Amino acid sequence: MIYDQIVLRYGDLIMKGRNRNQFEKRMQQQVRSALAPFKGVTYWKTYGRLYVKLNGLPYEPIANRIKDLFGLHSLSPVISSETELEAIRAAAMTLMTSLKQPPKTFKVSVKRGWKGYPHQSQEMNHLVGAHILRAFPDLSVDVRNPEVELRVDIQEEATYLFCEVIPAGGGFPYGSNGKAMLLLSGGIDSPVAGWMAMRKGLEIEAVHFHSYPFTSEQAKDKVVALAKRLAYYHGAPLKLHLVPFTDIQTTLAQQGQDNLIITMMRRAMLRITEQLAVRNGALGIVTGESLGQVASQTLPSMNVIGRATDLPLLKPLLMMDKEEIISLAKKIGTYDTSILPYEDCCTLFLPKSPSTNPNMHIVERVEAGIANLNDMIETAVRDTERMILRPNQPEPEENAGEDSWF
Ligand code: ATP
Ligand code: MG
User: Fold this and answer.
1) Strand 49-53 and strand 148-154: pairing?
2) Tens of pLDDT along 45-90?
3) Fewer CB in a 10 Å sphere around the end CB: N or C, the chain?
4) What is the pLDDT, as a whole number, of residue 398?
């Protein structure tokens, strides 16, 4: 184990002027909760970066965990040394010797972050490079296209050496762009939409409509599993609202307007979700809709459905193809759960030909004719169950105090 730290770089996105401080704090929170199971790591920060000290733990599992977090541009495992020539050379030798595949060509790139260091960057490239070349007779320098780039970051407190720059997921740290409700079905699309919204820094509370006993306990377990998977990405608990939808659905199905059932169901879902959003301080609703995918996702359908709420509807998958969505679902680890067969409430009363072009006046008239629709919506909101789902990882430990960022 040669690496003693991992450096985490935010990238440019986080450097948004006034918000910077808040973004950095969110990032730190996220890293802390995600790494809570790795007992023994400690943290410190500097301008635009975070460092995770490994304290003897292997770096791969930790780096893999960090890679899945939001708001990071890249990370590198580093060896740190004293900021002194012989120490830096020795660390460079350790790093080069540790490479699994001995390279034929390399170059040294020194960045002198601390201007008090006596040797200039160019001079240091030679001082370190020549030292390596003496030890590896088969190795040569290639400044244009080296197999290995040995980077040396000279700072006052220490010098950091690394060869790998592992790209991370990008986006914004979780929760740095406010909160939205995610309409989470058991399907392929909505978990992907949730992940994309989270990646953009939205805090998410999931809302699932069930028609128990028409929908099974397994259908609920499936949604719980999906929500837990989403929680994994920010490393902290996620709230799931389970809304009883049986009465509303059955009533809507009895109106003699079969081709409008889905339209009206979706509108009822939005009205309920809006109330849950207001109660929980959320300012938007995320759905897994994709333009033209099914009858309720044509533009005329979305127009009629969307008018049921004043909140912004966020649809990350709107312009994506199904294949793209599926490959993202596989990448984020929700696909296998999503394709489990259990019935969703919307497939229950699926009419033969759901409208692709619903008439707003007819929809409003039918809805107005259901005397107790508003009451049923209130009841559904009131009877909504809440679950706090923890990601599948050991419980975060209480902060012991020694691993402070500050
Ligand atoms: P998904 O794969 O996400 O289920 P879909 O392509 O099957 O999407 P629909 O069933 O028409 O499409 O649903 C469109 C969107 O409505 C879903 O992406 C989801 O955001 C929301 N939705 C559908 N059913 C439910 C449900 N039972 N609970 C919560 N939200 C739902
Ligand atoms: Mg669906």
Assistant:
1) unpaired
2) 987 789 999 999 999 999 999 999 999 999 999 999 999 999 999 9
3) C
4) 38
**Whose structure tokens read 């789902």?**
389
Q: In terms of Cα–Cα distance, which of 201, 227, 175 is closest to 332?
A: 227
Task: Provide the 3-class DSSP secondary structure of residue 94.
Answer: helix
Model confidence at 385: pLDDT above 80: yes
How far is the centre of ligand 2, averaged over its atoms, from the C-alpha of 73 (Å)? 33
Measured distance CA(210)–CA(220) in Å, rounded: 8
Q: CA angle, 200 as apex, 198 and 206 as ends, to 5°?
A: 25
Strands 179-183 and 285-286, bridge-based pairing: parallel
Domains defined along the chain, listed by start = 5-167 (3.30.2130.30), 179-405 (3.40.50.620)
Is 137 strand, coil or helix?
coil
Q: What is the DSSP string of 266-317?
A: HHHHHHHHHHHHHHHT---EE----TTSSGGGSHHHHHHHHTT-SSPEE-TT
Residue 257 has pLDDT above 70, yes or no: yes
> Which residue has 């040569």 as its token pair?
140
Contact 241, 388 (CB under 8 A): no
Confidence (pTM):
0.90
CA distance 164 to 114: 22
Residue 315's identity, in one-letter code, is K
Beta strand pairing status for 203-210 and 238-244? parallel
Consecutive H or E run containing 230: helix 217-234
Using a 6 Å cutoff on CB, does residue 208 contact ligand 1?
Answer: yes
Quick one: how far is CA 28 from the chain centroid?
15
Query: Does the Cβ of 325 fall within 6 Å of ligand 1?
Result: no
Best residue among 185, 210, 243, 350 to mutate for probing ligand 1, ranked by most atoms within 8 Å of CB: 185
* 275 among annotated binding-site residues: no
- Judged on CB neighbours under 10 Å (0-12, 13-18, 19+), 79 is buried
Those residues with Cβ within 8 angstroms of residue 101's Cβ, 6 or more apart along the chain or in another chain: none
Q: Which one, of 144, 118, 139, 119, lies nearest residue 129 by Cα?
A: 139
